[in-house]
Amino acid sequence: MAGLMGGGARVDGRNPEPTISGGASGQFDLNFVNNLNLTQCFSCKRHTVWVFDKIVWPATLSIIAPTDDMPQDVRDVFLEAAAIVDASPRGAAALLRLAVERLMPHLDAQAKNINASIGLLVAKGLDPKIQKALDVLRVIGNEAVHPGQIDLKDDKDTALKLFDLVNIIVQALITTPNHINSMFNSLPPNALAGIQKRDGNHG
User: Fold this and answer.
1) pLDDT for 77-115, tens place per residue?
2) What crossing angle do the helices spanning 89-103 and 72-84 adopt, rounded to 10°?
3) Which segments of the chain have a pLDDT < 70?
4) SS3 assignment, position 55
5) Which residues contact 141 (CB under 8 A, 6 or more apart)?
6) Pick from 42, 38, 61, 40: which is nearest to 51 by CA?
7) What pLDDT sits at residue 57?
């Protein structure tokens, strides 16, 4: 492997698990270990442990950041999901569904379940694109922990896209309205009064 010097084990592609194929009983001998390797980078001199073709140490973490306006209780679950997505994509998907559930009270849409909460938002005129994003998270997050047609056991790419959807939802339903309201409230008082008078006449 370029840039690495390694040592220890043989590779057995027929069974990519670490195994001991021989040697004296009760003794550990690297000459008889398959698919467990230690490498050292020529540049930084740090070591990496491999099981077949996967790095098991140091842990590799996908860099996933929550959007700035994400409520703290939602952010906590989002970051918990980010911490496990490499090891358990379906666990991360299930946590992101929980993050969406926690988001609902912040949108004044708390109902008996997440599906009913989404229905409340739809009744208030929710953008259909955001409704679809919410339903993707609801359905895939549910399928992740129940037997169904969607299997996220080894599908990290799909799980990573769910993080993007959570950020998109927060930006659309919290960040953008906050930005618009801030700009609107910064208008001169006489302009705000004129707008209120105009809209009141049509109420």
Assistant:
1) 999 998 888 888 889 999 999 999 999 999 999 899 999
2) 170
3) 1-33, 43-44, 52-62, 147-150, 201-203
4) strand
5) 93, 94, 95, 96, 97, 98, 100, 162
6) 38
7) 67
**Which residues, listed in sequence order, are joined to residue 50 by a DSSP beta bridge?**
37, 55
Distance CA 96, CA 163 (A): 7
b/e 146-170 (16+ beta carbons within 10 angstroms → b) = eeeeeebeebbebbbebbebbbebb
Both structure tokens of 163: 């993080």
Neighbours of 51 (CB within 10 A): 15
Residues 178, 69 contacting (CB under 8 angstroms): yes
Output the CA torsion 95→68→123→193 (10° steps). Answer: 160
Q: Which amino acid is at 127?
A: D
20 by DSSP, 3-state: which?
Answer: strand
pTM of the predicted protein model: 0.68
Specify the 3-state DSSP secondary structure of 154.
coil
What span, in angstroms and rounded, lies between the C-alpha atoms of 122 and 137? 16
Which amino acid is residue 112, in one-letter code? K
Kindly state the tokens that stand for 109.
């849409």
